[in-house]
Design a protein that fits this description.
Layout lengths: L2 H23 L14 E6 L1 H4 L3 E3 H7 L4 E6 L4 H17 L4 E6 L1 H4 L4 H11 L4 E4 L5 H4 L7 E5 L5 E6 L4 H14 L3
Parallel strand pairs: 3-4, 4-5
Antiparallel strand pairs: 1-2, 1-5, 3-6, 6-7
Helix pairs in contact: 4-8
Amino acid sequence: MSLTRSKPILFVLILLSIAVVFSACSTNPAGNSDEDDGFVINLYTGESEIGAKTIGFDDLVANEERPILLNFWASNCPPCRAEMPALEAAWREYGDEVLFVGVDIGPYVGLGTYNGGRNLVDEFGITYVTGNTLSRSVVTDWQVSNMPSTFLLNPDGRVHDIVIGGISSSRLSQKVRELIAANAS
């Protein structure tokens, strides 16, 4: 094959490669597109709140009238462990107005196991909805780059605010009150 003929083929291959790279790099920060990119939560706690042992997050959002605090955590993450009592206290105070959901992603970020997550929840006496997911893509779909990561969601699932890293009790209360105020009818 001559060099002149191979240039158009090379050009097409380069364009295809660029298209693949761009499509692979495009992400939806909250995983809230019209496509079915939700994840399933296998509950450790909160079955009475949800009415099931497992639930798709998209279904949870669709059937929930309250705003949602979505917290990604791991059992071997010191800041995650440190903020759990504050999350539990805030859940007890604001649970009628905001649904708290914790998702253990420790096995996917090298900071825990499924049993470790369940044991931690038991150790701290967590009562808000929390569990694990078998979907590794939740880490990239929600762009969880630091642990813990907390997303405050409007009732329609749109992101209202994000807190990266551990959160103090006072700051957590402030963020939850802001979420409630932003969604008051």
